Amino acid sequence: MEELIVKVEKLSHRYSAQWAVRDLDFEIYRNGIYGLLGSNGAGKSTTMNIMCGVLKQTEGNIYIKGINIRENPVEAKRHIGFLPQKPPLHMELTVREYLSFCAKLRDIPAKEVTRSVNEVMERCSLAHFSNRLTRNLSGGYQQRVGIAQAIIHKPDLVVLDEPTNGLDPNQIFEIRHLIKEIAHERTVVLSTHILSEVQATCKYIRMIEQGRVVFSGTIDEFDNYIVPNSLMVSLRGMPPADELLTIPGVIEVEELGGPKYRLRFNDGHDVSKHVVEISVARNWELTEIYTEKGSMDAVFAELSKK
Ligand SMILES: Nc1ncnc2c1ncn2[C@@H]1O[C@H](COP(=O)(O)OP(=O)(O)OP(=O)(O)O)[C@@H](O)[C@H]1O
After folding, report:
1. How large is the greatest C-alpha to C-alpha distance in the chain, in angstroms?
2. Are 162 and 76 members of one domain?
3. What residue's CA is closest to ligand 1, atom 24?
4. Considering the entire predicted model, what is its pTM?
5. Which of 52, 89, 90, 149, by CA, is between 20 and 30 Å from 135?
6. Does residue 54 have its Cβ closer than 6 Å to ligand 1?
7. Is 212 in the pocket of ligand 1 (CB under 6 A)?
8. In angstroms, rounded to a whole number, what is the distance separating the alpha carbons of residues 293 and 27?
């Protein structure tokens, strides 16, 4: 049985009159990358801030490794590393000075601070910039410093709020690589409103919209959320569309040029068996048949409406 790292129970939060998060329930298990996906204002940062103990919820509970973060924040926070949307960097400190300061904040014993800082700088490829002022680092390297402060105390749970926001494509690639490495030995939760981000990094997705969970599952399940009512086929015999319409269940035929056709059918009718049988019987020379998947964008648009 996998270890339960985070348990979110009936979580709701209200800023003055408006509910930002409503009745969230989910669980996160050890290791892997969990994406919290949602459009702007969906409630991702609110959820993450509560999960990391920097915002007190209006209702509900969050347990980190079984510890209620509201009742026992100091103990729970030992297991959490957090990179907020706006990284908590000190621009006037060098990388080493800043990370040493973070190590002390995290109660790392004085005689172990240097070793911990060296280790985390190595891990985040920051060693050669150890004496550089943070303000003089590129955006990608500043983000590495932000991630380094989140893992310096070796927490089981690392929470990253939009970790690649504002970075250029090369920096995004490198930060994703670093996040994947971190996830080999820790549980990572990251938020994003960018579909390709979860596609490239995450194993599991929770999508929230208007403060509520609208999808929870693996990337494949997300991808297959919309089961399309169409089949793509290639028939070298190039039969006329009228003939294809005689296949039981097929309601529309689109000729896509050459041997390619799109066959539409009604909900719940899988016509592929008939297509194969009839193609063989009438010698249509079937060379390709597959179901078109709903694109991530189509799933996102569909779920955003829920
Ligand atoms: N401090 C605040 N006071 C009042 N309302 C707030 C506050 N912070 C967030 N909200 C509102 O709560 C809702 C959820 O915001 P939140 O920042 O959690 O969303 P998000 O999914 O992280 O969005 P983004 O990607 O834009 O950061 C939004 O409607 C937002 O305007």
Report:
1. 81
2. yes
3. 40
4. 0.81
5. 52
6. no
7. no
8. 28
Domain with 90 in it: 4-223
Q: How far is residue 88 from each of residues 91, 142, 143, 161, measured CA to CA in Å?
A: 10, 10, 10, 12
- The single residue listed with the structure tokens 């009604």 is 266
Do 210 and 269 share a domain, yes or no?
no
| Ligand 1 pocket check for 86: Cβ under 6 Å | no
CB of 24 closer than 6 angstroms to any ligand 1 atom: no
Full pLDDT tens readout for the chain, 306 residues: 689 999 999 999 999 889 999 999 999 998 889 999 988 888 999 999 999 999 999 999 999 999 999 999 999 999 999 999 998 999 999 999 999 999 999 999 999 999 999 999 999 999 999 999 999 999 999 999 999 999 999 999 999 999 998 888 888 998 999 999 999 989 999 999 888 888 888 989 999 988 899 889 988 888 777 667 788 999 999 999 999 999 999 999 999 999 999 998 887 777 889 999 999 999 999 999 988 766 666 677 777 665
Q: Kindly write down the DSSP assignment for every residue of 218-254, as one continuous string.
A: EHHHHHTSS--SEEEEEETT---HHHHTTSTTEEEEE
Amino acid at 255: E
Residues 87 and 145 in one domain: yes
Main-chain dihedrals φ then ψ at residue 158, nearest 5 degrees: -120, 120
Judgement on whether residues 152 and 178 belong to the same structural domain of the protein: yes
The three-state secondary structure class of 136 is helix
State both tokens at 23.
């009745």
Q: Of 284, 298, 277, which is closest to residue 222 (Cα–Cα)? A: 298
Asked, for residue 303, whether it belongs to a domain, the answer is no
Residue nearest to atom 11 of ligand 1 (CA): 20
